[in-house]
Amino acid sequence: QVQLVESGGGLAQPGGSLRLSCAASGFTFSAYAMSWARQAPGKPLEWVSGIRADGGDTYYAASVKGRFTISRDNAKNTLYLQMISLKPEDTELYYCARGLGYIATRSSDYWGQGTQVTVSS
Question: What value does the mean pLDDT take over residues 52-70?
Answer without folding.
Answer: 96
